[in-house]
């Protein structure tokens, strides 16, 4: 009942009962028969007793068996007179709360137990706190024990107090061994003083923690590089308890840094020693470095250039307009791509003079691929460009006469035809051939023939206008292009001038030679409407002039089919010659002047009957290529040469044999299988065979030819590039094609003893070939002066009339025998 309901004169016992009913205390009283005599509402609620009246009822009737079983031992002890404070907590049935029970015996004056007072204290919060603490300790222990980095608790004197597995593995000790040691024992002697100094500052309170890189000594003796972090734990009085150390193994990183340092040192040494200039910048094109070559070419010392804009240091100009050229590094950085070589650019030196250069630029990336700068590499091309100009001139001009060659003539013919068509004008072409030149050449020698051709070229050139073009196609064939004429009579007038100019005798050595010309003329647009047809028709007319008695000229007319008829005739007779075995191989010696011996031979095709040429190779090989006979002829020649070389190896000594392979034969689908079969059939060791290819064959074959070359090389067969320098071979391709030998064309050798340009080019080819680990052979060597020069520049392998013309197998074997017996007559013929 409410307090206001108690009478004013209520007894103390009434007030006690009133307060007990309303107090939150969990109190109960049990007599010796274990029956409740009192239970507070809070107690009944905790014990989950639903009965309202519990007095007189036994405790085991009102509480659950499980709960009764837990308190029974304590209740018995208290009824026996022993006060009990239960060490174990009593959990509520729902498990969400816990209580601690106190059993106090009620003893009367005689010392007899009358009952037991039970007091429950709610300890749920304490139990929750204890559980959290245990969980925290567990997590700390697991984090400490299984941390990926080394963890340790270290006493102030340096002894290990606690260590984890990672630290044990890092230092090579088990936990028990490590606990018997101090960190000072395992620290590298060179790092100990610095470590102890930082420990001292920590103990003195000068810092809260420290970090350092240090070296530990592994159990097996090797050094462990580590990143160490240390903090100090103090007690409530501020006294040091222990250090907490975190140790991370950075040995791999240190090794990487060391490798990176060595790589950087190597890069710096390389940049300082290479022949190219190198400038690096940041993403904003501010210079960050120059190598010594770049300093020399720009005039800017590195300490002055670094930090300046790239355009201040690297100034490019157009060589013609002198206008600035955009820096290639701008495009490289903006587009994040490599910018290739820039040609026709000049670099302005700090002092004002300029140098022609070639350059390339590229972005610099970090490990994530982000652009962090750029680099430009460049070099002076003054000498290279001068040499290129000389080679370009020689590529478009005949080296003997200085006249335009076929390539330049074709270009000018096409231009003349285009202009004549636009202006409705005429143009003419004169095909000029020296009569009986072969006889002159064979009688007096090639040197005399060359002198004659040079004089012929001079006289023809003097007979035409300045705007006309005189070209030498090769051998004794010349072409005169008249880009503008009024009519055919103008062409005939020029032809008569040419004939008159050459009617006077030409002095060669001690002889005075009388020469004559056969000239064919074709007119645009009367005879042809394109350059190729114009040249072909003039050639046809020239053969007509020869057939009409030579020393004259003829205009083309459609009835002139003699040229085509001749090709048809050659084809028919060539097929018969194959059946009759009228083709044969002659062999021209290749010598090594350093060794003083014959080292090989070039197999040359001949079509002879009774020792006389039916047709020259220049006449029948083009026909064979046109009609497809070159493939079986080439296969026959290859088999014949391999068989002969194998015989020489057995009878005399190993001598390499080189065989010319035409483009049509080389590009035939079964060439490789045929080559391999011939080597197997003849038994020739592949290293004794060399295939001679033209630049056009190599350059125009594409990936198929590159693959074929590599397959041939895999057999052991050598590859030679014939007539090197006269075609259009890109020097960069030589890196990709497995060419073994460069054969310098006779056009360069002819004047090498007295012409500085020819000498420079031959020397450059020899140097380049040796630099690329290739053999170099000079062909067309006909004088001791030529041979001496070649030997002086390092070209010891030679071929030419000086050492022997192409000869029969018998004659060649006699030369081999003479060389092997030391006959001095074999030095030169």
Question: Describe it for me?
Answer:
This protein is of the alpha+beta class and 829 residues long. The protein is 43% helix and 26% strand. The chain has an eight-stranded mixed beta barrel, surrounded by six helices. The protein has a six-stranded antiparallel β-sheet with strand order 12-11-16-15-14-13. Helix 17 packs across helix 18 (446-462), helix 21 crosses helix 22 (617-627) and helix 23 (630-651) runs parallel beside helix 25. The protein is elongated. The relative contact order is 0.04.
Question: What's the quick description here?
Answer:
This protein has 829 residues and is α+β, with helices and mostly antiparallel strands.
The largest beta-sheet arranges its strands as: 24-25-27-28-29-30-31-32
Number of strands: 32
**Number of helical segments with 4 or more residues:** 31
Sheet of most strands: 8 strands, mixed, barrel
Radius of gyration: 54 Å
Overall residue-averaged pLDDT value: 84
How much of the sequence lies in strands comes to 25-35%
Report how far the terminal alpha carbons are from each other: 151 Å
Low-confidence stretches: 824-828
Structure classification: alpha+beta
Helix content: 40-55%
How would you describe the shape? elongated
